[in-house]
UniProtKB/TrEMBL annotation, chains A, B:
GO molecular function, one term: metal ion binding
Originating organism: Agromyces atrinae
Entry superkingdom: Bacteria
Presence of keyword Ribosomal protein: no
Signal peptide positions on this chain: none
PANTHER family: DEFERROCHELATASE, DEFERROCHELATASE/PEROXIDASE
UniProt keyword Iron, yes or no: yes
This protein's name: Dye decolorizing peroxidase
EC number: 1.11.1.19
Domain (Dyp-type peroxidase N-terminal) ranges: 66-209
A single GO cellular-component term on record: cytosol
Keywords linked to the UniProt accession: Heme, Iron, Metal-binding, Oxidoreductase, Peroxidase, Signal
Length: 408, 408
């Protein structure tokens, strides 16, 4: 089975130069570094040579799992939730998923969609992935209510939630991600043309991380509070990653779940907190994400350590302590994005986190963590969940199949 | 005087590896290409080596001209128009511009803003530029109405316009652009904290082009209609570029003007037009942007050529014909972006073009072109200007000076 993380040169782009760099230039580092200053001082317009074409990189579409879960997060994502039209029945769902699968398979390989109205926009895949999720209503219509996993539906109500319909729920999720915002825009449009007869857009959320090539591979994301965010995330290479993330039984075997939460971050209020206060609220240093009891990002926090006057070094109310469980099965795999939309009503920011997590079982893994954070987490002072949705991500499919074929 | 197009390694990022590639690897192309397939088939998580750190590239801030005009367009831009508070007088404007200049000079070099609340977010400049523009009201308050260039104010009314206040006007423009969306977000927040005491946000518009490294340098942008857009754009290396773009007299010497127009593109209506019709409307082939009388993008259109039955090969109503002037001084320098915002009200797209043009004199250069397009341009069938604003971009400043110091 293909590894969804493997990147390959694009099938498309016949007329484009195929100088693919990436990791391949590593051995040339010293030579390149010597030449860099001189070359970079020249105007770009004079450069007759090719840049490294990150845009040609592709992520395989077909496989045991859907792409877009374990691949190193791309720079841009657009999440779209749709509501099925009232007359979209089982047969219509199957037709919709077949055409979505077909176009996703093409676009992710740099090939125009089947009825692509702007085929020239499809030639830069830029690690595009399209991941499809099902809400409870879609599963019910496709295979009856008994096919719904127990965790598929609204999360339990949390005291901190101020959920808005505009960012919550949905019958179908399209998660489109690439290192090029233009690629995402084109793919989204093609896919929404596929779904138009079957479903209406309920919400759209757009997020970003650092650009491809901005930072070294494996750098943990920072959020807009400036925090290193996601240090303890399981890695796809971990021995227990499969048990944490992939469902094992029924039509969802090889699939997973996704929790999407829109977390507003009050940057103006955060501004009034000093650096020490910010570090206490998280339990980590802002400079490098190290726990307050350590010196490096991946040092294990020492929750027993106390200060000279007997207080815990990592406060009881800190995020790092409250999000941690004694139970190693109570873990989730996070793959979130920042959002920074145009402010409304005189504000100077409308920002936050598109929290995205995958786990084999939402009730068993996500809910206990969120319950602890709901009860006590100092970060709640500056953050408010304003959107929430849960979807089942079916397994990947083989060529000739379609996403959801194990359900229908 | 430094060339604002020249890129240099960042001053910041002390702990980051300095493998700067870009054009420097050109001579290594063959070797890199040979190794590429093998390396790209490996999961990224296993790559212990550095990616090319595009994020470290910087554009000089100080110079005869402001940065952000002649630099090869970055992948992301955010344009923000602000209205001065009623009590923001000449002295306050000077204070505001000093602090804006200081923070822009820092951030663009990968250095935290003076009162940066999240300094760790400032270490990836990614060719960040901050360009400051003045509306008529700001110029009047700073130096009296006589300091206003005749062209500074609302454009003449065009018949095709359906302008919305939400996207029009403003006293101060901040144009923030970088190859990394996160860099733009952080810079915008820092700059808006600087202006908060002096001005309120009137509108914010966000746009994108292809990511850095997605395409070869010098590839002409396509818009969301799939058209190659900007083929005849003057290049900063052209002999007459200075005459077209830079103002020559008074406080604006070394400065320029910017026209910002938000052009809604009706993608659904465009979908109903076949490929031939699309090419006729523009007068260029969609495949490579060549004029309908040529084979390559930069071939000169032959407006005299006729078909076998005597019709012009490039139709009278086509954009390429209508936008062209006999008068070579009637040209503008375009530096636009695509936008693709979340659709509202059941639509599946909310997309278009952030038209941005620079010219020494709006009345003499921009207005005649727009008048011709207003009278007749088949593209008007699918596009609607919904926002419009004009700003004077003062010249650049020297270290110790500030943007606008020639006015105040």
């Amino acid at each position: 089975m293909t590894d969804p993380q493997a990147e390959q040169p694009a099938a498309g782009g016949l007329t484009r130069r195929r100088l693919l760099f990436g990791g391949a230039v590593a051995g040339l580092g010293a030579a390149a570094a010597i030449g860099a200053d001189a070359v970079l001082a020249r105007p770009r317009a004079d450069d007759a040579v090719a840049e490294p074409l990150n845009g040609s990189l592709t992520v395989p579409f077909y496989g045991a799992h859907q792409a877009g879960v374990t691949v190193a997060p791309q720079a841009h994502t657009t999440l779209i939730a749709l509501d099925l039209h009232p007359d979209t029945d089982r047969d219509a769902i199957r037709r919709m998923l077949r055409v979505l699968t077909d176009d996703a398979a093409r676009l992710t390989q740099g090939v125009a969609a089947l009825a692509d109205s702007e085929p020239e926009l499809a030639v830069v895949p830029a690690r595009l992935t399209v991941t499809v999720g099902f809400g409870a209503e879609l599963v019910s219509r496709a295979a009856g209510t008994e096919a719904r996993p127990a965790w598929l539906g609204a999360l339990p109500a949390f005291g901190i939630d101020r959920l808005e319909d505009a960012w919550s729920g949905g019958d179908l999720l399209l998660q489109v991600a690439a290192d090029d915002a233009f690629t995402v825009a084109h793919a989204v449009r093609m896919l929404l043309k596929d779904t138009r007869s079957f479903a209406a857009v309920r919400w759209t959320q757009t997020g970003f991380r650092r650009a491809y090539g901005s930072e070294n591979n494996g750098t943990t994301m920072r959020n807009l509070f400036g925090q290193v965010d996601g240090t303890v995330n399981p890695a796809p290479s971990d021995d227990d990653f499969g048990d944490l993330v992939w469902c094992r039984e029924g039509w969802l075997a090889g699939g997973t779940s996704v929790v999407v939460r829109r977390i507003h971050m009050d940057l103006d209020k955060w501004d009034r907190l000093d650096r020490g206060g910010r570090e206490q609220s998280v339990g980590r240093y802002l400079s490098n994400g190290a726990p307050l009891t350590g010196t490096a990002e991946h040092d294990e926090p020492d929750f027993e350590a106390t200060t000279a006057i007997g207080f815990p070094v990592i406060p009881e109310f800190s995020h790092v302590r409250r999000s941690r469980s004694e139970n190693t099965a109570e873990r989730i795999y996070r793959r979130g994005y920042n959002y920074d939309d145009a402010p409304t009503g005189g504000g100077i920011s409308n920002s936050g986190l598109l929290f995205v997590s995958h786990q084999a079982d939402v009730t068993r893994q996500f809910v206990p963590i969120q319950k602890r954070l709901d009860e006590l987490d100092l970060l709640n002072e500056w953050t408010v969940p304003i959107g929430s949705a849960v979807f089942a991500l079916p397994p990947g499919c083989a060529e000739g199949g379609y996403i959801g074929d194990t359900l229908l």
